[in-house]
Amino acid sequence: MTGVRVSMTVNGVEYTRDVEPRTLLVYFLREHLGLTGTHVGCDTSTCGACTVLMDGKAVKSCTVLAVQAEGARITTVEGLARDGELHPIQQAFWDEHGLQCGFCTPGMMLAAVDLLQRNPNPTEDEIRHALEGNLCRCTGYQHIVNAVKAAARAMGAAVGAPAGGE
Amino acid sequence: MIPATFEYVRARSVREAISLLQQHGGRAKLLAGGHSLLPLMKLRLSQPEMLIDLGPVDELRGIREEGGSLVIGALTTHDEVANSPLVRERVPLLAECASQIGDVQVRNRGTIGGNLAHADPAADYPAAVLALEAQMECEGPAGIRTVPASQWFVDLLTTALGPDEVLCRLRVPVQTLGQGWSYTKLPHPASGYSLLGVACLVTVDGGVCRDARVAVTGAGPKAVRLAKVEQALVGGRLDEAAVAEAARLASDGLEATDDLYASAEYKRHLAVVYTKRALLRAVERARG
Ligand SMILES: Cc1cc2nc3c(=O)[nH]c(=O)nc-3n(C[C@H](O)[C@H](O)[C@H](O)COP(=O)(O)OP(=O)(O)OC[C@H]3O[C@@H](n4cnc5c(N)ncnc54)[C@H](O)[C@@H]3O)c2cc1C
Ligand code: FES
Ligand code: FES
């Protein structure tokens, strides 16, 4: 099987690799780049644990081929913090107990970042709607919703702070 | 799960995609958003030997208005359709349908062309394009041809698209004043696909229904128009009793199939319930 060359920017760093075409983006991130913060929770494109931002939009990286990300900007959970300081969404998940085992958390946070970029001040209904593609086995969701609300408040307070990672 | 091996090529134009399809015959498949194809390949239910990625083909993108229709490129994502000011203003039924597909992540990747070419029996767009009487524009070795939505859906996962053809864009007549619309569905709680979905457009003039188009997806092998419901509505006043009476005909002769989640009988029941809900919402909007 011949490799295909792919270049993409992940968390602000440009990478070029030769990959088998069948390599899923999530395995490219985890196994080729060693960024294991992005998780795999299902075989059916349902759970959202693998969510990353692709050109600023939340996508399930288990259902994107690495070669389809040619030229794209990818943000994973590793790219959220800046200079040792947690991103407001990370801080809010911490403060509001938005996780228990943490398996779903990277995907939840990136889906929440997509939401807050589009809608900086979402209602509870809008938050629940935006997280429909992310399943959590532990929390019962209420604390996750609270965390997204808290992040929205924090980001609204930080004037001009960009919502996106990278 | 990882797909079986395949060769991968990026098409740079529709012409190039067509010639690649001709060269590789049935071994190759087009790839758009990958949100129907890749899940099937991961489960090895589909094992194409080659994928032709339409991703770089810019001529398949974009939404514009032209001669009373919106022209929507096949690679337009569900998210773009749902949030496009042009679609929301001119064809709000289509925007409402797109906004209810799957979840945010699916809408960010899945494309309208891929959805219509795949023709999943539980997909949402098929009902909307039937009610809107959209036209699919395909290009193949013999040139461009246009297929009306009424002839597009042939059977389960089967459309009128020829083997070496690319679905390039659709033309959707803009909705007119006095037309009420609704897309109303019962989503499967895990996937978001429709257990049953109903698209409708009703034109009301002086309190009387002049035109009604109702289409259902999710019940059987393909989406269909509900002609009996439509006939019962046209010419009458659309009060709640009349709508309920007409909606009762939704299950009359409707082909429904048992699946893992719902029996055929339950789906026929849902067809009546959701037809009524969709129509009542459309009538409310027609009143403005
Ligand atoms: C978790 C999940 C939930 C979903 N929920 C819903 C839902 O609620 N409602 C719904 O309607 N859909 C749903 N979908 C399906 C989704 O909408 C898909 O995006 C869509 O059906 C296929 O579009 P695609 O661009 O991803 O196509 P692909 O998967 O890339 O392609 C699908 C098929 O169409 C062919 N094809 C693609 N583009 C073209 C073209 N331009 N010309 C000719 N052939 C082409 C391909 O060869 C392939 O056979 C869901 C998918 C997932 C993974
Ligand atoms: S691992 Fe991607 S959706 Fe579950
Ligand atoms: S915190 Fe355990 S799956 Fe969500």
How do the strands and helices of this protein lay out in sequence?
The complex is a heterodimer of chains A (about 170) and B (about 290).
Chain A: E1 4-10, E2 13-19, H1 25-32, E3 51-54, E4 57-60, E5 73-75, H2 88-95, H3 105-118, H4 124-130, H5 142-157
Parallel strand pairs in A: 1-5
Antiparallel strand pairs in A: 1-2, 3-4, 3-5
Helix pairs in contact in A: 2-5
Chain B: E1 7-10, H1 14-24, E2 28-31, H2 37-42, E3 50-53, E4 63-66, E5 69-73, H3 78-83, H4 85-90, H5 92-98, H6 104-109, H7 112-118, H8 125-132, E6 135-140, E7 143-148, H9 149-152, E8 153-155, E9 158-159, E10 166-173, E11 179-187, E12 194-205, E13 208-217, E14 224-225, H10 227-233, H11 240-247, H12 264-287
Parallel strand pairs in B: 1-3, 2-3
Antiparallel strand pairs in B: 4-5, 5-10, 6-7, 6-10, 8-9, 11-12, 12-13, 13-14
The complex binds flavin-adenine dinucleotide and FE2/S2 (inorganic) cluster (FES) (2 copies).
Tell me the series of helices and strands of chain B, N- to C-terminal: EHEHEEEHHHHHHEEHEEEEEEEHHH
What does the radius of gyration of chain A come to? 16 Å
Strand content of chain A: 15-25%
**Which regions of chain B have little confidence, pLDDT < 50, spanning 5+ residues?**
none
Alpha-carbon distance between the termini of chain B?
A: 50 Å
Helix content of chain B: 25-40%
Which percent band covers the strand fraction of chain B?
25-35%
CATH class of the largest domain in chain A: Alpha Beta
